[in-house]
Design brief:
The complex is a heterodimer of chains A (313) and B (248).
Chain A (H helix, E strand, L loop, with lengths): L3 E10 L2 E11 L4 E5 L6 H8 L7 E6 L2 E2 L4 H7 E4 L11 H11 L4 H12 L15 H13 L5 E4 L8 H16 L3 E6 L2 H4 L4 E6 L2 E6 L1 H4 L7 E5 L3 H10 L3 E7 L2 E6 L6 H14 L6 E5 L3 H10 L8
Parallel strand pairs in A: 3-8, 3-9, 6-7, 7-8
Antiparallel strand pairs in A: 1-2, 1-4, 4-5, 9-10, 11-13, 11-14, 12-13
Helix pairs in contact in A: 3-5, 4-5
Chain B lengths: L4 E12 L2 E12 L3 E6 L5 H8 L7 E6 L2 E2 L4 H7 E4 L11 H11 L4 H15 L14 H12 L6 E5 L7 H16 L3 E5 L3 H4 L4 E6 L2 E6 L1 H8 L4 H10 L2 H4 L1
Parallel strand pairs in B: 3-8, 3-9, 6-7, 7-8
Antiparallel strand pairs in B: 1-2, 1-4, 4-5, 9-10
The chains are: A alpha/beta (313), B alpha/beta (248).
Chain lengths: 313, 248
């Protein structure tokens, strides 16, 4: 039985199409990522899957139960960490946790073994008001509250947005541990680097799924050879590249610019030497170009740029 | 103090009761430079920025920004700097042009200047058709680009950007940085915070704050070489993890 099954799910809010025919499956025990920017439809999808919102069309089951018909039994079995901090700021850490346990008819003691690796990191501050916690601590408390009733599946909506790189890494270490213990996890993020830690990712944009694949295979969907170009003056480099007639795409990536060429039949090595030559004749003499393998973010940008050619996978 | 510098901070310190949020930081930012100001949540970045833009008095030390002492010349300082905070920069219930007029008015521009600069801004952003749209109807990425341009409306010599690209799609994030490059090419100093370490690579120089102090300062390339790391992400984790217990 699949853990999540979504078929042609659609949801509109007035003129805005939040979900435009989304279909995918999540296998039991999978760490499944929804990757995409604000407004891509990720939160609406979470709200449908957690039985908080009715879809306009389509069908979804979670743990084999229909999200619109079986919502009461389903709600006991899912854990949900919404994107906005949704704990009680005026209650202490331990009061929040006790409250969420009691809502599900259980106790902190019964759920303790599962949450211990996370909760023990904030337990020294258990009498502190939740509103007075740092961002990283709030996030760990929210995860503990979503897990305390020992759910069979966990939904996390942008748990790391606005959180610094160190806390982000630690949070993903926690998710990896939960996942290796067999918990099914569906998690959304705007950070492409986090996608690489999922078993599979779905790229979402404008209510559609642009691609679904294991992270390592997403890059293979990039349609042309890709080259990383560097030069001391990156702004001049970018402007020069954009003006070259054969350049199909040129986007800054960290210290380099990733460039693809619209001519077919050229290898990445040929593109690299052609680019070096063209840039030198344009007056940039300190350039170097190296063939690279496209990553998730390269593919995402490529697929975003031509939405009409893509369909919900 | 040094001339030719947009920002000069010397032993800048801020305490709240027993807690030292910013612990004697010193650095310079050159005019026209793009300076990345990085650090973990709770490291003291926001407190430091609030002192640099004249909203919070230092407990100790001093800073000169755009030629103004941040303690004693706050009025002049505010007219010479721009500030874009994360997501709170524009009024949702006003149209694009109304927001431009409001900010222009606050900074003392006359109607003709507001109209001329507003038109040029909307043309540069390719937003002319959306001038009468309510800001709340714009996609987040448009709002961020608009907020940045509005922060530049009064032609400040230094602009402070606090996490301008959080949650924005990867194309818009890059378009935003092209606006930053263009502003720097016109001579504006850009002081920017971000949680995206790949964006730190776009800066001329950057610093990493850890527990109220500046733990690293230099060009992205020099910092990676000095610390023997392959990426800025690795450097950030190496420096900030030592204090992870404090901001866990």
């Amino acid at each position: 039985m699949t853990a999540v099954s979504v078929r042609a799910l659609a949801k509109r809010f007035g003129d805005v199409t939040a979900l435009d025919g989304v279909s995918f499956d999540v296998e039991p025990g999978e760490l499944f990522g929804l990757v995409g920017p604000d407004g891509g439809g990720k939160t609406t999808l979470f709200r449908v899957l957690t039985t908080l919102l009715l879809p306009d069309a389509g069908h979804a089951t979670v743990l084999g139960q229909d999200v619109t018909r079986d919502l009461w039994s389903l709600r006991r079995r899912i854990g949900y960490m919404p994107g906005r901090f949704a704990l009680y700021a005026d209650l202490s850490v331990e009061e929040n946790l006790g409250f969420f346990a009691s809502v599900f008819g259980t106790s902190v003691d019964e759920g303790y073994a599962l949450i211990a690796p996370i909760y023990q990191q904030i337990e020294p501050f258990k009498t502190r008001r939740a509103g007075a916690l740092s961002g990283g601590m709030k996030q760990k408390l929210a995860l503990s509250c979503a897990l305390v009733h020992r759910p069979d599946i966990l939904f996390l909506d942008e748990p790391t947005t606005g959180v610094d790189a160190v806390s982000r890494r630690e949070f993903w270490d926690l998710l990896a541990r939960l996942s290796s213990d067999g918990l099914t996890i569906v998690v959304s993020t705007p950070y492409m680097d986090e996608a690489s830690r999922c078993d599979r990712v779905a790229l979402m944009q404008s209510g559609r799924v642009l691609a679904i694949a294991p992270p390592a295979q997403i890059g293979e969907q990039f349609p042309r050879p890709l080259v990383a170009v560097r030069a001391a003056n990156r702004f001049a480099l970018l402007q020069t590249l954009r003006a070259l007639p054969d350049v199909a795409s040129a986007w800054p990536f960290g210290e380099t610019v990733h460039v693809s060429d619209r001519r077919t039949g050229l290898s990445a090595v040929q593109v690299a030497s052609a680019l070096e030559g063209a840039l030198r004749s344009s007056g940039l003499d300190d350039v170097s170009a190296t063939p690279i393998s496209p990553g998730i973010e390269d593919t995402f940008i490529e697929l975003m740029g031509r939405p009409s050619e893509t369909s919900a996978a | 103090m040094t001339t030719g510098h947009a920002i000069v901070a010397r032993a800048l310190t801020r305490r709240f009761g027993d807690f030292t949020a910013v612990d004697g930081i010193s650095f310079d930012v050159a005019q026209g430079e793009v300076f990345g100001f990085l650090g973990a949540n709770g490291a003291g970045k926001t407190t430091a920025i609030r002192m640099l833009i004249g909203l919070l008095a230092p407990s100790d030390g001093e800073a000169v920004v755009a030629g103004c002492n941040v303690r004693s010349e706050t009025e002049t300082l505010r007219s010479r700097i721009g500030y874009m905070s994360q997501r709170f920069s524009l009024y949702d219930d006003l149209t694009v042009r109304e927001n431009i007029a409001l900010y222009g008015g606050i900074y003392g521009l006359d109607d003709a200047a507001i109209r001329a600069r507003g038109d040029r801004m909307l043309r540069d952003l390719d937003f002319l058709a959306s001038g009468d749209a309510f800001v709340r109807a714009l996609p987040l990425g448009w709002k961020q680009k608009l907020a940045f341009s509005v922060a530049l409306l009064h032609e400040p010599s230094v602009v402070f950007l606090d996490e301008p690209t959080g949650g924005v799609d990867p194309i818009t994030r890059r378009q935003f940085w092209e606006l930053i490059y263009a502003a720097a090419a016109r001579g504006t100093t850009v002081f920017v915070t971000t949680h995206y370490l790949d964006e730190a690579e776009y800066c001329d120089r950057m610093s990493i704050m850890v527990d109220g102090r500046i733990a690293a300062l230099g060009t992205p390339g020099d910092l990676k070489a000095q610390h023997g790391v392959r990426t800025l992400d690795d450097l950030f984790v190496q420096l900030a993890r030592g204090s992870a217990g404090a901001n866990a």
